[in-house]
Amino acid sequence: MEADETHLDDVEVVEVDGADADLVVDEADADVTADADDAESSDEAESSEEAAEVIDPVAEFKATLRAKPGEWFVVHSYAGYENRVKANLETRIISLNMEDYIFEIDVPMEEVTEIKNGQKKLVRRVRMPGYVLVRMDLTDASWGAVRHTPGVTGFVGNAHQPIPLTLDEVYRMLAPDLAPAAGPAGAGAVGTGSKPKEVRVVDFEIGESVTVMEGPFETLPATISEINPDTQKLKVLVSIFGRETPVEVSFGQVAKI
């Protein structure tokens, strides 16, 4: 039994000085604080990266337009036949093997609210009656393919050497409702730029000259051809590419000259 007994004299007791114990605790606290600071710095870095990733939809759309091959041209068509001309030209591109020269046909559309019999109805319609946009490389062959498409009456500008649209002109026609991003504070809530228009009662006369104040024809002069008091809308004639084009606007979208 004496051989199995543990002698207290053989047990070494290590005493830790009070100052050393405090140092160990302080080091542990410092490690925890450092880890917390690293985590906070990481979160701040991620937030900064997210803020930097906010994209301006206007700039992005223009960059997309700029990167596409070809240039945009405008062709005349009979009013009301714009979408038919688009379909006819798309068919001709395939049948004439012009895929490498004519890339895209677009009929700009818009949504408006019409009021009939006291009821509002959302209607999608052609924004510029009588015009079709074509993105293409201009050659004699591609010019002929477009020009001789049923429903096309000619190119805007020089008949045989039409002038392409500028990037800003294309942007206004294809994406007039995009609004610039609001920055980090507005991330995730990029608007379309459109908002309900205030309806105002204004006295107008047929033949009166006005200035368009909103929309794709902003700042352009126009002449009133029709007045509809029930819907609070006007039909005005706007000169686009040297041709008078009827455009419907609300009373609040024009100003008297």
TrEMBL record:
**SUPFAM superfamilies per the UniProt record, alphabetical:** N-utilization substance G protein NusG, N-terminal domain, Translation proteins SH3-like domain
State a GO cellular component annotated for this protein: cytosol
Q: Which Pfam families match?
A: NusG (PF02357)
**Alphabetically, which GO biological process terms does the record hold?**
DNA-templated transcription elongation; DNA-templated transcription termination; regulation of DNA-templated transcription elongation; transcription antitermination
Domain of life assignment: Bacteria
Residue limits of the KOW domain? 203-230
Q: Which residues cross the membrane?
A: none
Renumbered residue ranges of the record's region Disordered: 28-52
Q: Which UniProt keywords apply?
A: Transcription, Transcription antitermination, Transcription regulation, Transcription termination
Domain named NusG-like N-terminal is located at 69-177
Task: Identify the HAMAP family for this entry.
Answer: NusG (MF_00948)
Protein family per UniProt: Belongs to the NusG family.
Any idea what job this protein has?
Participates in transcription elongation, termination and antitermination.
NCBIfam families named in the record: nusG
Q: What is this protein called?
A: Transcription termination/antitermination protein NusG
Its lineage opens with: Bacteria, Bacillati, Actinomycetota, Actinomycetes, Micrococcales
